[in-house]
């Protein structure tokens, strides 16, 4: 378990994650920082879900800034896949049994009752809370399907956010689709790593993803720097008044701290 969150139900806890594979193994000008990438891909750690939870894929990005000021950009698609290991499913059920036993004891202690006289001394409110506990805070290996989070990440020298997003979504669809893609997955990964060049400054580049072509454009020397992030999301997240206030603070050269989950 990552961090001290034992008071939460096992499904709501976070667990330690690790990098399963990365390609290529190393690049001279950009050595792979396994610890940093692992932490930035899953900042909250590994998480579990059941069929009752929302499991829509989520995309986020990060920046690794090195001592010399150089930057590399990461784009991460997080999704959930079914846990096929019976050992892990059994362990999750055991965690729930232990957790519910502790909750059961705390409810019993708060009502000042013994186990022998539980039925007669627990008031109606406690009985209701126990019923809710057993109904909503449970995992049944024979009834529920367990899912675990997984990430695919693309690390690039420039922030081509839209192109990376489209490629990762197409790759995810190829992984989860019942119908296999036209070529093996390794072909698409090899293509984007070794055969798709950076577009020259001021030019656009069109390359093929798994199912559809993808276009990325690089600004010229006299144009504004590449900013491929959608401004609409900024307005939706911050709101108009907050965004105007942040922009005012930027113009006044004030220090700004954005805090987010």
TrEMBL record:
Gene3D superfamilies: 3.30.450.200, 3.40.50.11500. It holds the Pfam family DENN. InterPro entries: cDENN_dom (IPR001194), DEN5A/B (IPR047278), DENN_C (IPR043153), Tripartite_DENN (IPR037516), uDENN_dom (IPR005113). One of its GO terms (molecular function) is guanyl-nucleotide exchange factor activity. It comes from the Eukaryota. Keywords: Guanine-nucleotide releasing factor. Residues 1-261 form the UDENN domain. This is DEN5B protein. It comes from Cinclus mexicanus.
């Amino acid at each position: 378990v990552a961090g001290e969150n034992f008071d939460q139900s096992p499904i709501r806890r976070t667990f330690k994650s690790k990098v399963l594979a990365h390609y290529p193994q190393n690049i001279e000008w950009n050595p792979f920082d396994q610890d940093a990438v692992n932490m930035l891909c899953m900042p909250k750690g590994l998480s579990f879900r059941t069929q009752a939870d929302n499991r829509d894929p989520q995309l986020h990005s990060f920046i690794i800034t090195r001592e010399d000021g150089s930057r590399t950009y990461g784009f991460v698609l997080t999704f959930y896949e079914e846990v096929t290991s019976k050992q892990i499913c059994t362990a999750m059920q055991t965690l729930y049994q232990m957790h519910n036993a502790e909750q059961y004891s705390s409810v019993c202690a708060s009502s000042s009752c013994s186990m022998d006289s539980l039925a007669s001394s627990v008031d109606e409110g406690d009985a209701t809370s126990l019923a809710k506990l057993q109904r909503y805070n449970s995992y049944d290996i024979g009834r529920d399907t367990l899912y675990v989070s997984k990430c695919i990440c693309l690390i690039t020298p420039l922030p081509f956010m839209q192109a990376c997003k489209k490629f990762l979504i197409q790759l995810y669809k190829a992984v989860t689709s019942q119908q296999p893609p036209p070529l093996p997955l390794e072909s698409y990964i090899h293509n984007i790593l070794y055969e798709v060049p950076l577009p020259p400054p001021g030019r656009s580049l069109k390359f093929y993803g798994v199912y559809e072509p993808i276009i990325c454009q690089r600004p010229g020397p006299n144009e504004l720097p590449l900013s491929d992030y959608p401004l609409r999301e900024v307005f939706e997240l911050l709101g108009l008044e907050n965004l105007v206030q942040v922009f005012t603070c930027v113009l006044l050269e004030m220090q700004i701290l954005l805090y987010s989950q």
